[in-house]
Amino acid sequence: MIVFSNPVALQNETEIIHSLFENGLNLFHIRKPGYSLVEMKQFIEQIHPDWWGKLALHHHHELADEFGINRIHFSERERNNGIGNNFQKKIISTSTHAIEDFNALDTTFEYAFLSPVFKSISKENYLPEIDLFEALKLRTNFKTKVIGLGGIQADNITETLQNGFDDIALLGTIWNNENLLKQFKLCQKIVHSYSQ
């Protein structure tokens, strides 16, 4: 189970991230599209170095080596522009929105997000244009893990995992929840019970 950062700064954000890790979060994707290089550096510096190995960078990839971050994420646009050879020793992920794009990925990508699975919780008017459960029946790429993203919350995690997704990613269901740690633990429990 992957958790995405809230796209904008939040109060007590670092403390919340630490508590997620302390409660078993394995992978945290830092996606802060509005952050400058300096802001991103300051954000990472606030996270305890023990957790840097569990971070993935969406922006300012050049900071990865400085912080010992071994996961790099490429947007669809970046992927289409070519990722270069600078990140050969990194674990690479990307975003897709159609099964055809996912199937066309090469082995560079360890995992890819396929979204939106459901109506987004955090992005207004971000809805699935096609049924991704049906689309996944056409999956031919089994070298890259497919991660469901978009509108995933406690009541549809099992359905998502039963319909062909290898894992899930959470954003709105965590950050838009009054008791986000309780929500995280609930989602984590569902994922763990499914995978056992």
UniProtKB/TrEMBL annotation:
Thiamine phosphate synthase/TenI domain ranges (all copies): 10-173
GO MF entries: thiamine-phosphate diphosphorylase activity
Keywords: Thiamine biosynthesis
Protein name stated in the entry: Thiamine phosphate synthase
Xref: InterPro entries: Aldolase_TIM (IPR013785), ThiamineP_synth_sf (IPR036206), ThiamineP_synth_TenI (IPR022998)
Native source organism of the sequence: Flavobacterium geliluteum
Pathway(s): Cofactor biosynthesis; thiamine diphosphate biosynthesis
Domain of life: Bacteria
Lineage: Bacteria, Pseudomonadati, Bacteroidota, Flavobacteriia, Flavobacteriales
NAD recorded as keyword: no
GO terms under cellular component: cytoplasm
Biological process (GO), any one: thiamine biosynthetic process
One Pfam family cited in the UniProt record for this chain: TMP-TENI
